[in-house]
Amino acid sequence: MTKVTMTINGKEVSGDVEGRTLLSSFLREDLRMTGTHIGCDTSQCGACTVHVNGKTVKSCTMFAAEAEGAQVSTIEGQANADGSLNVIQQAFQDHHGLQCGFCTPGMVMTTAALLKINPKPSEQEVREHLEGNICRCTGYHNIVKAILAASGQDVSTIAAE
Ligand code: FES
Ligand code: FES
User: Fold this and answer.
1) Which of 49, 93, 104, 144 to mutate to test the pocket of ligand 2 (most atoms within 8 A of CB)?
2) Domain span holding position 6
3) 45 touches ligand 2 (CB under 6 Å)
């Protein structure tokens, strides 16, 4: 076992991990931070997306030990300080950007990364940025609409589906 220490959502945490322990497993099983979902464990679905040192990472593709000393952000750290939904989460709720919700934590983390580098993305740019996140329920239309709304763009002419 190896001791690993990282900062998650602004709080320093430590744990003992095996070399093979994935970051996703460390978050969910060791820290009980189950907002990060595991849909495939094979790097395809994006449900496990977090940010590591400001970069979007599928946490099932990285060993926990590799995050030694890193700044990690997860869905648990996305709400506003008063506990209310942040602008992205609120837009997903307002525009029905989820059904079962399984993909949603990853979608929110991916969206946060997109809006940081591209605060007013086009619909095409949103769709391209979601390439690594699979949703089996929504058909993506309302997710894209929610993301455009979260970026402050007028979505009133986009029909709900
Ligand atoms: S669980 Fe990591 S990409 Fe699917
Ligand atoms: S809302 Fe069910 S997988 Fe996306």
Assistant:
1) 104
2) 2-77
3) no
